[in-house]
Amino acid sequence: QKLLMAKVPRATYLVINTTENKFFLRSGNQTLRSGFCSTGSITVLKKSEQEKWIFQTPRGIRTVRGKTTNPVWKKPDWAFVEEGLPIPSANHSSRYDYATLGDYALNLGDGYLIHGTLYQRLLGMPVTHGCVRLGDDDLEFVYKNLQPGAKVFIY
User: Residue 132: in which H helix or E strand, if any?
Assistant: First the structure.
C-alpha cells in the first residue's frame, strides 16, 4: 500500500477508463471530479486495401502538451472519406471546423485531444475517432484544473 501511494502523482492528473467511458480528475488520492466521457469506437474505415484508419483511443500514459480555447479542428483526410466526399487540398477552407471541438481542448500529442462534443447524449459511449470527449461543464473544469505537463493515464 505504501509503495503504491508513493507512485501516485502529487500534481493533478486525469484517468480515462476506455472500457466504461469514464474519467477521473485526481490530485494525489483525492478525486476532484468524475463523470462520463466518450472514447474511440474501435471501428475501421477503409479508403482502399492500402489505406485505412482504426479509430481507437491510445492506451498508456500521456502528457498534456498544451491547452487551447475555442479550438479549430483541421479535418484529416479520413473525415472526408467517412462522409463520402472528395479529399480537398491540405489547406482548403473546408478542412477547418470551428464548432465541433467545443470551447476547450487539451493536446495529448499525435493528433489526440481531450475536447468537447456536439453530441452530449452520446457521452459514456465509445463513439469517437480516438480523442476523448467530455461534456461542457466537465471539460471546463478539467481544462481549468489540469496544467500542461500533467499526466493522463488511459486504460
Answer: strand 132-134
Non-local (6+) Cβ contacts of 59 within 8 A are: 18, 154, 155
Q: How far is CA 108 from the centre of its chain?
A: 8
**What's the CA gap between 134 and 65, in Å, rounded?**
18
C-alpha cell at 134: 467530455
* pTM of the complete model beyond 0.85: yes
The CA distance from 119 to 127, in Å, is 10
CB environment 3-21: b (16+ within 10 A), e (fewer): eeeeeeeeebbbbbebeeb
30-67 pLDDT, tens per residue? 999 999 999 999 999 999 989 999 999 999 999 999 99
Alpha-carbon span 80 to 61, nearest angstrom:
30
